[in-house]
Amino acid sequence: MTAAYGLAGVVLVVIATLLIGTLGLRISRTTSDFYVASRTVTPLRNASAIGGEYLSAASFLGIAGLILAYGADMLWLPVGWTGGYLVLLVLVSAPLRRSGAYTLPDFAEARLESMAVRRATSVLVVLIGWLYLLPQFQSAGLVLRTVVGAPLWSGGVLIAVVVATNVLAGGMRSITLVQAFQYWMKLTALAVPLIFLLLAWRFDGAPDLSSRDAPPRFAERTAVSIGLPVTVEVITPVRVTADGHVDGRRYDGSEITLGAGPHRIDNGTTVTFPAGADVPHVKGTPVRTDREWAMPLAGRDHSIYATYSLILATFLGTMGLPHVLVRFYTNPDGKAARRTTVMVLSLLGAFYLLPALYGALGRLYTPELLMTGRTDAVVLTLPGRVIGGLGGDLLGALVTGGAVAAFLSTSSGITVSVAGVLAQDILRGGVRSFRAATVLALIVPLGLAIAARELSVADVVGLAFAVAASTCCPLLVLGVWWRRLTVAGALAGLATGGVLAGAAVVVTIAAGPPSGLAGALLAQPAAWTVPLAFATMIVVSWCTPRQVPPGVVRMMVRLHTPESLDVDRGTWRPRRV
Description:
This protein is α+β, with helices and mostly antiparallel strands.
């Protein structure tokens, strides 16, 4: 794809986003408009908006990249991210809407009548939101670098500016319109190119990966350009042509032999491989034959543990994501909240059929991404590689626009939820405080994205799910369904889950998990942090029965009584922090 077409795709999506967002400036006037769109969003529009903000960079780019690298094991990600909404539908969607709260900390305070629990929940909401924003900004940098060769930091800055403009203009009303448009934009951006990619694959003889018991190989003579320094693991010695720095030595288009083992290749280097050569892998990425790649639980250390931990994190983490929960406060009533969740399941199910096919096609046609370490770029690379010409450029521009829509919609939803918490719990509340909090909600993760080492987008989002599942999920489930939950129990559970899952996240992001069982426990912590958080909340609550809030009976009635009955449901107003 030429840079001009890719840049045109980016510009068109940004302009459309800003134009739709300005509509929110005309219709947003009150505090309720900015926080929850005055609770007037219809189920279909709300479901589209939820799909828009939930289908992040991890869904649009990351799933395909992980499937390209790891194979069938990663299919649990789209299954879990969709199934999480089923758990949300069954357990908390309608009670959350009936609570009358603006944010998750509002619900925590209303349910437990404690400012301490509210502050602890506020800290977690902000941290989870920032952790979720980090890969959005990094992936935006990847897209602009892939399309036009821009610096990695430029994509994050562009997304932050556009999101800030929309959120400052109209708050939740503005973002709802933008995100509903962006869901359908993302679905179209993946579905239309995929039709042509599958036709091209069929015309190519429909090659089958699973029939080959061999690692990925270059089908033809291939020149691989390295954008960032990388250490690769060569399986079989191969004679290549190098133009740049390899293992600390300078080569000017000369032939060299890469022996089996690790090799350091600097940025700006081009290495040309002969047809039939095995594809080197980034050091640390498992080398699998195509047969192993197509078989679940094949060739991974502690794969059963990692799989079940991933399932637990994705199924339970969804209900703990602040930008997801705030959407249920925008429905008119609990019935509309349930209808919204059912529609979301259909929209997500339709979308998640697509990234897996991109990952499988990438294994066939863009195996060099396993060498560069940029497997997240497979969705962007495939149209130009498989189709080529003007058609490939146009389809590549469409996919690029969809990727930008993914960053914008998810970043907008997270920013609204984080800004709402910061405005109420740190600033004075109201529209002016919400706008100031929006800037703060974006600056911190943008700085982290620029400074932090590059990570797989889906891996970082998976860690955010693990933290949410270990903290907000126990608080919501027990807060909605167990009247004996106490202030001490809630605080102890939040601290246990937050500290343990947070420590795993810090280690994984800062230095990468170690090898063996310890690495599996840190890379996928949900299997042990979630049970510990639930157990801590329950045991400590049993030990402190006198700390059950005095108004718990009235609150439980409010959460579980249908709106058709005459129950006082005024909007929850938090006390001044």
